[in-house]
Automatic annotation (TrEMBL):
Transmembrane segments: none annotated. The gene is CNS1. Residues 234-357 form the Cns1/TTC4 wheel domain. This is Tpr repeat protein. Belongs to the TTC4 family. PANTHER family: TETRATRICOPEPTIDE REPEAT PROTEIN 4 (PTHR46035). TPR repeats lie at residues 61-94. PROSITE patterns: TPR. The keyword Cell wall biogenesis/degradation does not apply.
Length: 366
């Protein structure tokens, strides 16, 4: 036989004007949300304070439960919570009443989003009655709100095992099932993305080792928006593309080539950047930076200086930077994902810079 739909509160609200009714209750000492302290000078209120706790524990608890129900129907959950707590504190002996107070207090905490308190009260209720549909329902609701979907489903299934037609639990189970499916889908997507990232990193590490490249990430862990990657147009997935800095030390400025395909000659980039007939860059006041009159240098990890011919590619420079057999590891440095080269006018400027570089390098080596 199908069970009833479980309401979220103690029982469905009436059609009365609850706000007006509760406002009237607030002015009646017997129904005040909190009773006066013991040292009050109002003897009438003091007597009512005593009256509120007069009777057997079950009678006192029942009284607080009924007051809590009124406030719950008025959606005044904090006040209702206080009354249910006083009912629990009265320590009734009636197990059914104990269960009702705990489940009702759980309903208040569910509305107030105090999900840990919901789970604690429902757990206590289930120790009193292992077939409490309300306790299972509210536990599952709290667990679902906490995104603990598997546990929410377990609560629903345990309830449906003895109350299979409970519409409220069936609907909640459907929501939990959908939430779990969405959660599982996101976790799978995350795992797939992580696996692809790890595989891409593994392949990039292999490519770096093959080219004797030495990666030097930033100390703060940040990354460059332009990073080395495999050429999407290469079906063999064996050609790397790098962001490359061209430094012009005599002018303290630089250019960045966002995508330098490793099989492209340096001369092709210089010709595109400094064509003979084009106006000189604003910083090149003497017009020295012209294709055919420039030289490129690469610096290795061990401070070796390599002169780069215009027909050389990045792949060629990587090979030239590799340490000879028996020597310490060496190669080009990839700083923050970028390779760096120095571009100079041939002649006096070049000679002066090379001399200064070697002097600084030798001084640091001492």
């Amino acid at each position: 036989m199908a069970g009833p739909t479980i309401p979220t509160g103690p029982y469905p609200p009436s059609k009365e004007d609850l706000d007006a009714k509760l406002a009237a209750f607030d002015t009646v000492p017997l129904f005040m949300k909190s009773l006066p302290s013991d040292d009050t000078e109002d003897t009438a209120l003091a007597a009512l304070q005593s009256l509120a706790h007069e009777g057997t524990p079950d009678e006192v608890a029942q009284n607080f439960k009924e007051q809590g129900n009124e406030y719950f129907r008025g959606k005044r959950y904090r006040e209702a919570l206080g009354f249910y707590t006083q009912g629990v504190d009265a320590e009734p002996t009636d197990v059914v009443l104990q269960e009702a107070l705990l489940c009702n207090r759980a309903a208040c905490n569910l509305e107030l989003q105090n999900y840990g308190s919901v789970l604690r009260d429902c757990s206590k209720a289930l120790t009193l009655n292992s077939r409490s549909s309300k306790a299972f329902y509210r536990s599952a609701s709290a667990l679902l709100a906490l995104d603990r979907t598997e546990e929410a489903l377990d609560c629903c299934d345990r309830c449906l095992a003895f109350d299979p037609g409970n519409k409220g639990v069936l609907q909640l189970r459907d929501r939990a099932s959908q939430a779990k499916a969405a959660k599982d889908r996101k976790e799978k997507e995350k795992a797939d993305r992580l696996r692809k990232e790890q595989e891409a990193k593994r392949q990039m590490d292999i490519a770096f080792r093959e080219r004797s490249l030495i990666s030097l990430p930033k100390a703060d862990g940040s990354s460059n928006p332009y990073e080395p990657h495999f050429d999407a147009e290469d079906s063999t997935h064996s050609t790397l593309v790098f962001p490359v800095f061209f430094l012009y030390p005599q002018h303290a400025t630089s250019d960045v080539i966002q995508e330098f395909v490793e099989d492209t000659p340096f001369g092709a980039h210089l010709a595109a950047m400094f064509p003979p007939q084009a106006p000189a860059p604003e910083w090149d006041k003497n017009g020295e930076y012209v294709e055919g009159q420039l030289v490129v240098y690469a610096m290795t990890h061990r401070k070796r200086l390599l002169k780069v011919g215009k027909k050389m590619t990045l792949r060629d420079v990587c090979k030239a930077a590799k340490a000879k057999e028996g020597e310490k590891r060496d190669g080009l440095e990839v700083k923050d994902g970028c390779l760096t080269f120095v571009v100079l006018p041939k002649g006096e400027v070049e000679a002066k810079w090379v001399e200064e570089y070697k002097r600084t390098r030798d001084a640091e080596a001492r």
